[in-house]
Amino acid sequence: MIGQRLNEIRKELPPEVKLVAVSKFKSVEDIMEAYRAGQRAFAESRPQELVKKASVLPDDIEWHFIGHLQTNKIKLILPYVNLVQSVDSAHLLEELDRQASIFCRTVDCLLEVHISGEESKQGFEPSEISQIVEERLNLQNVRIRGLMGMASLSGDEHLIHSEFKALRLLADKFKNEGLGYVSMGMSSDYRIAVQEGTNLVRIGTAIFGNRI
Fold first, then answer.
1. What is the pLDDT of residue 212?
2. Using CA atoms, how far apart are residues 153 and 118, in angstroms rounded to an integer?
3. Which domains does the chain have, with CATH numbers?
4. How far is residue 151's CA from residue 189's CA, in Å, rounded to a whole number?
5. For a tag on the chain, would you pick the N or C end, based on fewer CB atoms within 10 A?
6. Which pLDDT value is given to residue 37?
7. CB-based contacts of 140, cutoff 8 Å, min separation 6
8. For residue 205, which of 4, 5, 63, 18 has the smallest C-alpha distance?
9. Which residues, 6+ apart, have CB-to-CB distance to 78 below 8 Å?
10. Beta bridge partners of 183
């Protein structure tokens, strides 16, 4: 069933859109079913859960971190994570750089942008992105690869279209700076995100089913 859902979603996505399967709260067996269907990029939102799964699953899995990351948990995920999608503050960015240097590695990340009107969501304000991109030149062990955002939890498709469009237009300003990724779109709104120009979607429920 998981493999079938994956294949159906892949048929919908343009070739330039990368699919990341959100496997948080899902079992190793479920992830392996997706893996056997050809999926290699997975996302987790809790450091301990990512570490537990990464330590027993195949080494060629590409792990993304998508949750709010506390600075004292960075050291847990650094040995495993390929892309931190949820960098939501300058302090976190600086601490990622510092700890990545201790691990003698470079970590890729996305800047999380607050594109919805919901106060519960985190991230940089759009007006802050230019300064952060300029200041990244001081970072030695972090590469900012693009922007990530979450639309409002709303049935108003016009609103979601406008929020995703705003993020894509913001990302377009920094294409020449090496920020090529635009990560937007989840199970409920990835089709809108594709229409608005995303090239990375984070899909969980539509692949694995509802959490029990």
1. 56
2. 8
3. 2-208 (3.20.20.10)
4. 8
5. C
6. 97
7. 97, 101
8. 5
9. 99, 100, 103, 105, 107
10. 148, 200
Look up residue 161 and give its two tokens. Answer: 């279209």
Q: What is the pLDDT of residues 93-135, one digit of tens each?
A: 999 999 999 999 999 999 999 998 767 678 999 999 999 999 8
- pLDDT one-digit tens code per residue, 51-67: 999 999 999 999 999 99
Rounded-to-integer distance, Cα 155 and Cα 135, Å: 37
- Rounded Cα distance between 184 and 138, Å, is 27
Q: Which two tokens stand for residue 115?
A: 């594109």
- In the beta sheet, which residues pair with residue 111? 87, 147
Give the chain's radius of gyration (CA, Å).
16
The three-state (H, E, C) secondary structure of the chain, written as one string: CHHHHHHHHHHHCCCCCEEEEECCCCCHHHHHHHHHCCCCEEEECCHHHHHHHHCCCCCCCEEEECCCCCHHHHHHHCCCEEEEEEECCHHHHHHHHHHHHHCCCCEEEEEEECCCCCCCCCCECHHHHHHHHHHHHHCCCEEEEEEEECCCCCCCHHHHHHHHHHHHHHHHCCHHHCCCEEECCCCCCHHHHHHCCCCEEEECHHHHCCCC
pLDDT value at residue 210: 81
Q: Please state, in angstroms and rounded to a whole number, the distance separating the CA atoms of residues 17 and 168.
A: 14
